[in-house]
UniProtKB/TrEMBL annotation:
It comes from the Bacteria. It is found in: Cell membrane. The chain crosses the membrane at residues 16-38, 50-71, 83-105, 111-129, 145-166, 172-195, 252-271, 291-310, 322-341, 353-378, 390-413, 419-440. The keyword Ligase does not apply. This is D-xylose proton-symporter. GO terms for cellular component: plasma membrane. Residues 14-444 form the Major facilitator superfamily (MFS) profile domain. Pfam families: Sugar_tr.
Amino acid sequence: MSKNSFSNSFLRYSSYVIALGGFLFGYDTGVINGALVFMSKPDQLNLTPALQGIVSSSLVLGACFGALASGRIADKVGRRRSLRWVAFLFTVSTIFCALSINFIFMAVFRFILGLAVGAASSLSPMYLAEISPEAVRAFNVNKNAIFIVLGQLAAFCMNALLGNVWGSWGPIWRIMILLASVPAIILWINSFHIVNSPHWLLLQKQFAKARRVFKKLGFDAADLVRIKESQPAKGQTSQGPSWRSIFKSRTLLYLLISGSIVALIQQISGVNTVMYYGTILLERSGMGQSASLYANILIGIVSVIASIIGTSMIDRYDHHRMLLIGLAGNIFFLGLLGLVLQLHLLTGWLSNIVILLLLALFLASHQGVVSPVTWLIMSEMFPASVKARFMALSTTTLWMTNFLIALIYPILITALGTAAVFFIFTAANGVSVLLSAFVLDGRRIHAAYLQNEYVTQKGEKHA
């Protein structure tokens, strides 16, 4: 069954609900881009560059713990209930962030908000993969990547609108942040109307219920045969193999390390320095505050268009090759950006246009190719019995890397200058090309692992 011929309204509805987790991930990581300028003012939270780094990175630090805990929680209570808790945490923590009275309150509640962001970053792509028949799996998982950049674009648009129309009102940043509670409430309400992951139901030995859910989601006979072959070996618990068994299995250990490397590749590109500090970066390059806020909208639009085009290409072509193409684009555009900033060959409005263009092209390369392909690889490369735990550890690696970059970036550009920092990230993308050679094709290794497990189970049955 091809993607074009597949039609299931309930699956489509469920996939959009789950992808709202990605939208919230995008909005809450993107809103700080514009809000940080306003909350840093002396009559508001009075943030220095170092405190700006802490406020931005506190969410990311929380995301590390949220991602790490999400696997165990999702295995214990199920994907649907976990998503519902995440939506509730998004709502409450967003409201308290908007009401923060000083730097400490903001950092604490941003950390709590990060728990929800981290859990959603791991849970949403995994949940989408598990409810989707193979014909539309990549298409549905890619919705998460598209919704992330849609959330960032929504944040940039709200920042520009509110910042330019009501920018003279000091607490306007509170409204920017508070708006994220709206999609969080929508996610919480709609989480009561979707089904649990049928794969999780199988791991819980709820076979009759899983069969009904598979049918409701549109799985065909071929899908069900592949799913049956992927179930845990005889005598294995619903929680999957123990960590001791995992570390004894060269294949599982390879997949775990590969997942962490894929997550690392996504973050050391430097993309979130633009997403978190874009307004400050553009102001430092010569743009005014108002122009910088509007420029972020252009960057967001380019990211969304690139994400839509890129995910359709990724669905058709080899994932590893697409990753290399995206990384090559990152290296080229970041290197050019560093040269433009270093050599000062252009001045005034022409310099601003070139800088904005190169930033947009870099984000098109990363958000259109590197980011969606890494999320897709991670969602597909792990066997069902260890998927939640391996996804949690991989996304924890992602957020730990993100945290370190978000924390030190304001300090780095103050100490080294913007051009030098972009040269550092150019080199980091070069390192990512070397790291990607280790990953190769996780889906092929996953398939080989499942085949070995299937042969083993058949041998045990006949014995």
